[in-house]
Amino acid sequence: VQLVESGGGLAQPGGSLTLSCAVSGNIFRINTMNWYRQAPGKERELVATAASDGNSNYTDSVKGRFTVSRDVAESTAKLEMNNLKPEDTAVYYCNAPEVIHIIRGLPAYEYDVWGQGTQVTVSS
Predict the structure, then answer these.
(1) Residues 6 or more apart from 73 whose CB is under 8 A from it?
(2) Phi, psi of 89 (to 5 degrees)
(3) Residues linked to residue 6 through DSSP beta bridges, in sequence order
(4) Parallel, antiparallel or unpaired: strands 45-51 and 56-58
(5) Which of 66, 105, 71, 110 is closest to 85 using CA atoms?
(6) What's the pLDDT at 73?
(7) Is residue 42 pLDDT above 90, yes or no?
(8) Which among 27, 45, 71, 113 is least buried, having the fewest CB atoms inside 10 angstroms?
């Protein structure tokens, strides 16, 4: 099982970027997918959570600006980021706390799976 992020890059303040997270493997179920970020010199921070039932949660600093979405059937997640600010600059990571996938017809469990991260830089 691998998580692969894409969509990072450079944006101007007030601009937008959309991050994508694709999960490889014969996936049976992923209940929750998270987006974290880590800015230089800071601890990794939980930005948004998307549950398979459609519920989502956000850290206060991104509420109203970021939107997380899931395609449960395709095992993908997106983070739409609008009105970007310089303080949003960070490496963004996709995370799945639990992945149930199928190996030779049997369920297998992977825990705390992370992507490699994608850099988001907000600067004029």
Answers:
(1) none
(2) -60, 125
(3) 20
(4) antiparallel
(5) 66
(6) 83
(7) yes
(8) 71
